[in-house]
Amino acid sequence: MNITDTHIHLYAEEFDKDREDLIEHAQKAGMNRFFMPNIDSTSIAPMMELQHKYPGICFSMMGLHPCSVKKTYKKELKIVQDWLSKETFSAIGEIGIDLHWDKTFIKEQEIAFRTQIEWANKYKLPIVIHSRESFNEVYKILVDMKDQQPRGIFHCFSGNLKEANKVIDLGFYLGIGGVVTYKNSGLAEVVAKIDLQNIVLETDAPYLAPTPFRGKRNQPDYILNVAEKIAEIKEITMEEVARVTTENAQKVFGFELQFTSAASL
To answer: Region 68-89: what's the mean pLDDT?
Structure first.
């Protein structure tokens, strides 16, 4: 079985004590690629270090997370722009709008989002979207920029069926993670009504651990719980879930479907 994690913060300090063991264990269980979203200037160095240590396994994105859009956002965007001009990245991400914690910089978030969509088009890269409590705002911008719209993923999708279909109609994939295993999230019912061809898997580790690990540190191999839940919903095998979602991830990120063995670590 070969699984691709399209969204994981492997560089996070929560993994500092056992990162290598977790990656090795995950590889042996069938996880062959990890796509890492950037947060801001503070996360670039550890993220790039991990990519260089695990070439062909760990892939970096470049972008400014909406929660990091503050007064100095222009300086942060310049750093993103500089990196895009000198390195090759898998995607622009994670980018978007977050209205959960603070709405102070919503205008700046919108500007940063639009700017990074333009860069994605310039560099012909997909975008990975963060849309916490901001689906309508994000969707409006994507529709406004439809002529410039790149391919990509709605990370940590947890919306309703109507929103899911809007995402699909735009040509984006739904990033499904641990939330699908939560009893009262309603996401399982949405996943049941959409085609597997529109889904990619993610952990968002160390965050949003699936049941039965909810509330604890999420880790790479917990993506198996997500795949198992989707297989249960769709009444298919985990192997089929892994195959189709990895093929979908390939369509987004453009990697070759040649899988790395654990022996290469």
So the answer is: 97
Element (H, E) at 114: helix 106-123
**Beta bridge partner(s), residue 200:** 175
Distance of CA 182 to the CA centre of its chain: 19
Residue 79's H or E segment, with its range, is helix 73-86
Compute, in degrees rounded to 10, the torsion defined by CA atoms 139, 143, 146, 151. 20
Distance CA 200, CA 246 (A): 7
CB 130 within 8 A of CB 94: yes
260 has pLDDT over 50 = no
Rounded mean pLDDT, 67-85: 97
Interaxial angle between packed helices 223-234 and 238-253, expressed in degrees from 0 to 180 and rounded to the nearest 10? 110
Q: Tell me which amino acid residue 31 is.
A: M
Residue from 66, 28, 60, 5 nearest 206 by CA:
5
Strands (DSSP E) found in the chain: 3-5, 31-36, 58-60, 92-96, 127-130, 152-154, 173-176, 199-201
Kindly report, residue by residue over 79-99, the tens digit of the pLDDT: 999 999 999 999 999 999 999
- pLDDT at residue number 188: 97
In the chain, the amino acid numbered 254 is: G
* Locus of tokens 């898998």: 90
Region of residue 33 (phi > 0: left; psi between -120 and 50: alpha; otherwise: beta): beta
Q: Residue 263: which pLDDT band, with cuts at 50, 70 and 90?
A: very low
pLDDT in tens, 134-172: 999 999 999 998 777 678 999 999 999 999 999 999 999
Q: In what order do the strands lie in the sheet with 173-176?
A: 92-96, 127-130, 152-154, 173-176, 199-201
Count of all residues that appear for the chain in the document: 265
- Element containing residue 67 per DSSP (H, E): none
